[in-house]
Protein 1
Amino acid sequence: MHLLDPLAPDLPQVPTRDGFGKTVVELAEKDLNVVGLTADVAESVRMHWFAEKFPDRFFQCGVAEQNMAGVAAGLAYAGKMPFIAAYGVFSPGRNWDQIRVALCYGDANVKIEGSHTGLTVGPDGATHQALEDIAIMRVLPHMTVFAPCDAMEARKATIAAAKINGPVYIRCSRDKAPQFTTEKTPFEPGKAAMLKDGKDCAVVACGAMVHESLLAAAELEKNGVDAAVVNMHTLSDVDGKTLEEIARKTGRIITVEEHQIVGGLGSAVCEALSEKYPVPVKRIGMKMEFGESGTAKELLEKYGMNAKNIAKVCREMISAKR
Amino acid sequence: MKITLENERDLKLMANSIRSDIMEMLVEAKSGHSAGPLGLAEVYTELFFREMNYDPKNTHLEGRDRFVLSNGHVAPVLYATMSRAGFFPKSEIMGLRKLGSKLQGHPSKKWLPGIENSSGPLGQGLSIACGMALAGRLDKKTWRVYCAMSDGEHDEGATWESILFAAKYKLDNLVAIMDRNFIQIDGKTEDIMPLEPLGKKYEAFGWHVISVDGHDFGALRRALSDARGTKGKPTMIIANTVPGKGVSFMEHLYEWHGKPPSKEQAQAALLELANERAKIEARTDAKGNASGGGKEAAAHLDAGARKGAAAKKS
Ligand SMILES: Cc1ncc(C[n+]2csc(CCOP(=O)(O)OP(=O)(O)O)c2C)c(N)n1
Ligand SMILES: [Mg+2]
């Protein structure tokens, strides 16, 4: 696995929304059918680079996420490949019905960027922290859901999205995050990436929590605990094969996500394992509550989603009697 | 007990204090919205220090008027106004956007007593206000619903759904006040998604529409009283405001929609606001209608007086 040292202090700090925004521009250079839409949040979700470069293919919808999704469906039905970009809480939060029927049931080739997802949105508070978006997107037939772990992977997910003929949701974040994967790190939709092997337990994470999990694994290693770390970047159809392998090997799974523990990655992992190879699972994430204002760091600590707590949960699980 | 300001000079001084508070809160928070809140100081002063009936120490008071905020990102002006009105100590405004503070980045019903609805997502407030107005009417109450909205949120379909609804049910106990500042995040409203003629649209949808200078207390007061007298229709007061009002380098610029001032900018802003304050004091002194020698004369009405005022209204 090609990875930069997750502990290196000089890793580039880039938000995943940047990886998405830059890549849409590249895709549009090659494909004239690529069009971009936003809902009065161009710069925030990094659609402004596209808007500057391709003003004729950019459509500003105003604060109207429902209309944006419907218009995108129409564009797609008539042969275009729309990328619609807004905050995750509003798209898919507000326009879910349009996404369900016009995009999924209607098989529209539309790519959705939900930016500002997770607790790391920080001071804006609960209303702006998307913590349910994986659940509502993962449940939709025909929808592909990616939750990239860093900006480099967001780039690969965006390229992969363009290759899929159908609706795709790309979950992005606002906050800068360490970029620890490289051009060479494999990204195969539907195939979980085994970032670190291990035998005592396996941490399965997505998004920014993948890096936290690698930090946790490094800390555990100091205490003689050998934890595997798996990046589950595709959430629409979780990779049951990889899950079964690590479940057989470690016997314990810990899931970590910037999302409610119901309906998201944790649920998806439990669903897959219960049919293939049930082992105890601990889910780390929001325990069915709303977030609040604070810095990203404070919030991850308060809600138990930082490396320190991930390591603690792993240790507790290992020492618990079976 | 609610603090009522009747004198134009005191109202202006209050709006000026609120602007200073907004700048102080935002520079401390290091994130948040500047332009909208600064433009709304007079509207919020008029509503909280003159128009609405409520008790800051008894936020569940049964007969209180309901203030529904739709464009939650203008939280700083609401918090500054509420602290000045006695809902919570002024010292707490510096907690804005910090972990554990009642002053969440967007106003939260769960965190701060006196907040009627949690907001942030645009285009929800008017629906909630409609529901409250319906409930008030079902129960034959005389309290009124005040819904504060922005212009940008008129891009949302849901806003228009509630505009239709309010007219259908003839919600004359509902008055909406729109911050018509012609900006949103990505640019000027008429470039992002043209809204004009907005007043005519409301009229066509069956509303009573009043367009006012949102910085003119006299005009705001007349509009609100006109709304109180209007029967069989909801009223929309289009408050024409200057985004960033009072801080010259922010005025009219959409770039200040969602940005806090830096330390230096906040200092410059506070200096401008202090100069403006001195002018208000000097001007009104010359006219001879000053009260309290430069200090805000906050008239504390007793319960009886307030009740009398409320009765006169309806
Ligand atoms: C449903 C929804 N979509 C998007 C946003 C993000 N947003 C926050 S403020 C804003 C601009 C709205 O314009 P306006 O309220 O007129 O802003 P202001 O005049 O205060 O600058 C947007 C798009 C939101 N809060 N809610
Ligand atoms: Mg506006």
Protein 2
Amino acid sequence: MTECRKWNVEHLQTLLDVLNAQGYCIYGPQLRSDAVVYGEIDAIEQLPAGWHDQQSAGSYRMDSDGDPQLFGYALGPQSWRKYLQPPRERLWSAKTNTDTQAITVSESKPAGKKMAFLGIRACEVHAIDIQDDVFLNGTIQDNRYAARRENLFLVAVNCGHVVSTCFCTSMGEGPKVDAGFDLCLTEVYKNGEHFFAVAAASDCGRSVLQVCGSAKLSESDKRLVTKVERDARLAVEQNVQLNTEGIEQLFYNASDSEYWQELADRCLSCANCTMVCPSCFCSNTTDSGDVSGRKFERWQQWDSCFSADFSYLHGGSVRASTASRYRQWLSHKLASWQQQFGRSGCVGCGRCVSWCPVGIDLRAEVQALRLRSHNADD
Amino acid sequence: MDWQSRIVTAIPTAMDTKPKLAVWKFASCDGCQLSLLDCEDELLAVAQQLDIAHFSEASSQVSEGPFDLSLVEGSVSTPDDLERIQKVRQQSRFLVSIGACASAGGIQALRNYADISDYISVVYASPSYISTLKTSTPISQHVKVDFELRGCPIDKHQLLHVIQTYLQGRRPQISSDSVCVDCKRNQIPCLMVSQQQACLGPITHAGCDALCPRFNRACFGCFGPKNNCNTRSLTAWLQSEQALSKPELTRLLHTFNSDSFVEPEYAEE
Ligand code: SF4
Ligand code: SF4
Ligand code: SF4
Ligand code: SF4
Ligand code: SF4
């Protein structure tokens, strides 16, 4: 990694212009209906300046204190997954020729545009790395994912604002982004001074940094940057953590626990947690056609282990109860994922905690499960 | 005959004799039938594939049964309905109930919680002319229903899908998810979590593609309860976190599917 350089706010606009000129479609954070969401951007005025989020189990609030920080929020409801594996996409369509009865099938290919993500956090870079295991690094490659992933340019941002649902430190990455990016920024706003520290970690990143230009960070700048990064780490460490010690065995031993039923009394089996999770990857397909029977389409869409249809084998759902569905979700994410991919499926972003409509917090559930199995051992 | 075995019969017959479609009305507002008329672009294709033999909303010409596919709108709410639904069933090879009235009793099932004679005397000048049942009940309580489409009104895409899969002899792919799943696929920031709106999406059957949340309005459950519907947990949360009172909860649950969201015992206030 090259040495950190200094950018002011104008450099960020230059970055957008340079990426645009290189043919990237840039996605970044913006404020829409009381939340930070990701969308196409080409001007820094579109960024959510001054907006900060407060999050807790089942709750997300935005407020603005008028400061100029562009990345002063932690995480919104959407993950970048929506660009790499869209929530819905047509896989192919087919048409029957009225005269010849010949069927033509056309595959729908991803648009093939180069994408740049601005403002991606450590936990989210980690999540893309986890999804790469699923879609790229296994025996079967998902061509659509691969096409979207190929020219991805990542402008990461180290967190300066942490919310109570963050626990990336438990999961081994964050809040500082260590690898996997092209450029990485730390935003500093102190004593009326507003600047960024910028680092490059790839050839692409280095060349973009060179074109954009930069200045040298002074020693006092560096101290401010270090303070932002250290404060963020301390803030996450002070949050409730997810204790991962011996977690695989904990879950395997608990497969028959009555605890799942107690959870099911609260869980709505609504699937929000899986739908916001940046590492979840399940999808289903549906076939639809027009009434004449001449046109057909196959669509793929995000699915969830909380849905009844998800575990449908001939004649019925294998996981009919909410208890079995919650057990499936959490056991896969935290335990059997390790068997499958050699690491945990959770990056500690806390989205499933904030966006559960009834505030179910996996950190607390794991702790309760531990207590339960501990007592059972006695 | 189930949907699957239709494969054998549908394809050879589709060319020569078109299957006969009938649309029936019971106690309802006509909104669901109108969804069929609302299929402007596809209506012609429907008429090419099916013989629209009985559809009073569209044409006064009605032909005799039996019918291959019957769409039944509305709930059973009068003594006459009780007899008529049996006749409809006898004449129909496939019977699909459409909408919240037909599949759950509809708004008019509010009467199930009151004494119907109190209403009659308030609403009608000569109550003696009124012959009605004490309850409004779904079609499936009276006859065998082959498929139910939910919603107040139904979603026209789902209706077309059911007609299309019927014609092809395959099972309709109608999801049993919660409204939240579609809400998230549309990438809408949850209204419960970010705006403290009281939303029934987590316990409501999908099908509308999260229509209300897409317009920043919480779901009021018009598609009825979803599979594994945990009304107790959601209402407990709304009570404790959004300070909804018991009457407010009752009202929320009893709008469109008054008889199908079963009210739990609420915590004392
Ligand atoms: S399980 Fe929850 S905290 Fe972990 S990555 Fe998924 S959404 Fe984030
Ligand atoms: S979980 Fe960590 S990396 Fe993710 S937003 Fe929170 S502090 Fe940042
Ligand atoms: S844990 Fe929460 S978000 Fe997930 S299915 Fe249960 S109620 Fe829904
Ligand atoms: S707004 Fe309603 S339907 Fe959408 S996710 Fe939230 S609770 Fe579910
Ligand atoms: S969001 Fe809810 S109330 Fe609105 S149309 Fe859909 S099911 Fe009906």
Protein 3
Amino acid sequence: MSLLQVTNLHATVGAQDEQKAILKGLNLTVNPGEVHAIMGPNGSGKSTLANVLSGRPGYTVTEGSMHLADADLAELEPHERAQIGLFLAFQYPVEIPGVSNMEFLKASVDSLARARGEDQTNTATFIKHIRQLATSVDLDPQFLKRGVNEGFSGGEKKRNEIMQLLLLEPKLAILDETDSGLDIDALQVVAEGVNRYKSENNGVVLITHYQRLLDYIVPDFVHVLADGKIIQSGDKSLALELEDKGYAWLT
Amino acid sequence: MTRDEAIIKKHTEDVYKYGFTTDIDQERAEVGLNEDTIRYISAKKNEPKWLLDWRLKAFDVWKKMESPDWAHLNISAIDYQSISYYASSKKKQYNSIDEVDPEILKTYEKLGIPLEEQKMLAGVAVDYVMDSDSVFTTFKEKLSEAGVIFCSISEAVQEHPELVKKYLGTVVPQRDNYFAALNSAVFSDGSFVYIPKGVRCPMELSTYFRINERNTGQFERTLIIADAGSHVSYLEGCTAPMRDENQLHAAVVELVALEDAEIKYSTVQNWYPGDENGKGGIYNFVTKRGLCGGARSKISWTQVETGSAITWKYPSVVLRGDDSVGEFYSVALTNNRQQADTGTKMIHMGKNTKSTIVSKGISAGRSENCYRGLVRISPTAENARNFTQCDSLLIGGECGAHTFPYIENKNNSAIIEHEASTSKVSDDQLFACQQRGIDSEKAVGMIVNGFCKEVFRELPMEFAVEAGKLLEVSLEGAVG
Ligand SMILES: Nc1ncnc2c1ncn2[C@@H]1O[C@H](COP(=O)(O)OP(=O)(O)OP(=O)(O)O)[C@@H](O)[C@H]1O
Ligand SMILES: [Mg+2]
């Protein structure tokens, strides 16, 4: 069975009276072990796809279907989608002042464990584990005590997302421009994190504008999303071609 | 339906968890208020003449006063003649828990504070007030070993009249305000604490107040005196059963800290807030004030307010002793149609006096939450300092938060700092939590608890845990 199956997905955004169609018949299949890159012009609907899949309020699916393994995503609340293994690394991670990173992550891990009927990790084990993960993405463990993303730099926020990916070990990871705004070293840290997460059992959807990231995380497929549809798919050579020629020749 | 509407709708369907009533034999005064009512109360309590005269004087004062102007509160008139001013359980003076009316015990169990368990809670002496009378007092002996007096104020009137007479009304005079005057005339019962010189009270003193009898206004009177060099921490917690009509609650709490003494007074208040339209909730008009009478004394108020339909409450400190310290840490949460107008007054009179105010207001539903604070620096208060921080958190789009800080500074050497902020629990924050598997209710609880951290830190351990839970319960359904 495929890991992610998106079929003829149409979605709109906005309040009832002024709905705007963004996704217009999108198809995507991700099998276990695969890395898919999604590229495309600004405003083409890449983040919208990620938001619709993860159930962000404000979007309406008007047609088509989306499944994670055998679960119909449309029937699940956002937190339930997370609990069955859907992970979104945000393009713009949000700050939650007053809630420490540590507390947030423990709540997250506990919720996932509870949903799966597993035992909660004991706090000491958890702290040890999360400290190691922080160090592995080049974040000082001191960051764990700070409010979630509170006052983090752009790059720190992105590394925090990857740390969460490594902690939660989801089935499907959607990374929305996690490479944007990173310096060269941070880019490598992030890529190395994703490669560490990757296995034959899970899948990665990488939304990016830059071929550069794909030098580090090698995709099995590259798709071009334009005007709410995938208009071209290929292997990693497509990314190189896009780097060269832009999107104009496709649209 | 917008998200906010959904939030509100879901919440308003929630039912107050502690809404139930208990049938107990009660003795009560005739409904209505006149001199005879006051004589009846005083006679019932077998009070000395000076106290009856004191009550009657207060009644005279009250009759001449006008009900205050409600500022930010939306309130319908209270009919003072339709209230019964005295109710007490017929059975009194229990020597053992077996003698306590089983109905009362059941009530406490439903509230999650079974007496049995409370008794075992090491270090906490519990003085229950069911309606107007103290029902049961524990740990008395251990306290008396230390010389600490902790009893009902009625008992104190009988056993320690000289102390009551010396301090009653010295911090909150009868004419202080409308509700203080009313309380002085008809007060039923409450707690009395005296900590002798140099004594550190060996345990935290705790009172659970509970309004139980239908149609009975509660007029507690609490008096705490910390003699020179002593130290006491006092906890007050409340919850009340569901009601149809509004219930008036007008308590007076007076604290006196002499030289080098310290009083820490913590409250978790969870009275019935009314239904989704605010119907049936409790009106809570409380006058709480502490006097730092001696040099280097310290009074600290910490409160977590989640209940009542209407709250009107300004725990204050008069800093008369040189180098004395006043603190106010507050979390006030309003939901549905609740209205809260709360804050503090810090009156600096002595030299080098210092006050700290940290107020956290959380508004959800269609509630209105208002902070009103006064910092007054008198001409005599050389080198006074105040730091005030007022933060508001809004959940949903139909609630309100207002901040009214008043500063009256009559001394140039004073340093007064004020910080304020307003934030909103955003949909983006909630979604970020949900995307990590945390449901929205838990997420709001986490965000709200984070917001209140600085105040919770000031609460005694067991109260802090309770307070965190209380906020979550109070916000249940506040998000969709
Ligand atoms: N909440 C919203 N209300 C109105 N329009 C929206 C909303 N969210 C997205 N859109 C619009 O939908 C379109 C697609 O946006 P989306 O964020 O999915 O683009 P993207 O492909 O991720 O672009 P970028 O590469 O710039 O990140 C844009 O035109 C955007 O303005
Ligand atoms: Mg985007």
Protein 4
Amino acid sequence: MNLTAIKVIYFNEMLRFWKTLFQSVASPVISTALYFVVFGSAIGSRIENIEGVSYGLFIVPGLTMLSVLTQSISNASFGIFFPKFTGTIYELLSAPVSFYETLIGYVGAAATKSLILATIILATANLFVDLNIAHPFWMLGFLVLTCIAFSLFGFIIGLWADNFEKLQIIPLLIITPLVFLGGSFYSISMLPDLWQKVTLFNPVLYLVSGFRWSFFEVSDVSVGISLFMVFLFLAICIAIIAWMFRTGYKLKQ
Amino acid sequence: MDSIISIKGLSKTYNSGFEALKTVDLEINRGEILALLGPNGAGKTTLISSICGIISPSSGSVTVDGFDIISDFRKTRSMIGLVPQELTLGAFDTVWGTVRFSRGLFGAKRDDAYLEQLLKDLSLFDKKDSEIRALSGGMKRRVLIAKALSHEPKVLFLDEPTAGVDVELRKDMWKIVNKLRNQGVTIILTTHYIEEAEEIAERVGVISNGELLLVEKKDELMESLGKKQLLIDLKESVKKIPSILEKYNIELNEEGTQISYTYVVKDETADVSEVLHEITNSGLLLKDLKVEQSSLEDIFVDLVKEEL
Ligand SMILES: Nc1ncnc2c1ncn2[C@@H]1O[C@H](COP(=O)(O)OP(=O)(O)OP(=O)(O)O)[C@@H](O)[C@H]1O
Ligand SMILES: [Mg+2]
């Protein structure tokens, strides 16, 4: 195991994050604040409590997840796509580094960034609403697992993409709609019967629901199922990556 | 001779179906400087990329210091440093940052003193905190060399190190190459320029169309394929070559002031003393004479022509 290599890949990626700290943090913080102003205060004041939780509070976990998912994917996909794009990948390929070491370095850094971001978003939210976390450990657990799972997913996209369009198309066309329709801003019990059933096919629902439960003990599906789904998603990503590794998919000819 | 890299039946067909390397066999000796010479698209970069792990060979095997490049990739790759043909560097990294990154990536222990000396040798030390994007092309090339040497490799690949490089940097580069060679580092470089191979390499391999046409000691190559030309200035110009000299490969220049005799060095039938004797006998008055040797370039042009 080339631990030194994992370390330098990880810190090199984190360095990129620090260098662009302002951009990295400003946009999610601003959009969170905007959501709060629009949904929490303006519209939220006209919406009654959902299962005993005020609307402004109710959307906090969903908002956090929205940022975590999109940022994990974009950080991890960009992290591995960029060296491919500029050609600096030659060094990674010629180094005594295995595919998994590369993976740990890049995905670890992307997940760390998302975790930092989630913390900042929760802190920002705390300025608008009074945030009390019922199960901090569960909250952290869901958060960490989600960061890792979606960073893995982003890594896969970064490997697969050979141009900028492909890099952006999945987050744009799949992830964003899934997050919006996955109960980030509402409880699925507010939907008509048919749509409730359809929504159960949306994996993001389980993430948001479990995450929200750790805050308010309010959930759309049971926590056990949420946890299972997170692990399932994690396992699927690892399986895809293992397959990519075995076939040398898109990394080298 | 003790070989450090052993290439057996190496071939590479790209996904596009293009066969860039056709069964290459090559032994690279420990501590030598080998130049791979070939026109654009010959397969030089493909060969190097296969050895370094940037592309997967379609068939054949390569060992570095006895270790297989696939099953023992950690051992082989940590022995190898590569300076790629293209100037590929992260624009926003600093010189110091990127060199340290390379060393770590290759699993070497942190050694700032070594890296400092390395940057000094490459005249990069005063730029160590500059971002790469603020450097000139030549300096970027130096950074690539520093990265390749950052983990103290035993084998160094230089893929067209002098493309877009000025005389000064070229001289520096050869100084570094010689220094490394004296330390026992094996160096393989690719080039289009014959003079470069002639200047620095001990052995020359000629690649064309994915085939290694030959690998020989530079001197032997010059000898076996090299032609020599005996040039004789005449005291008095003549209209035509005297008839007794017609059986030899002798030509007269337009002004009639110089005759030249071209012969292949290794050719047994060529007898310079006999020719000289006949020339004296023919009554020509000699003013001066000199011998010119064909360059690798001439040899190479002949070789590739034969191939076509
Ligand atoms: N990724 C690739 N896919 C398909 N064909 C390729 C690829 N890379 C190189 N080739 C082809 O393989 C052949 C050999 O290329 P290579 O880069 O090894 O040549 P080279 O000898 O290094 O040339 P140059 O002197 O121009 O650098 C060329 O015909 C090239 O077009
Ligand atoms: Mg090349």
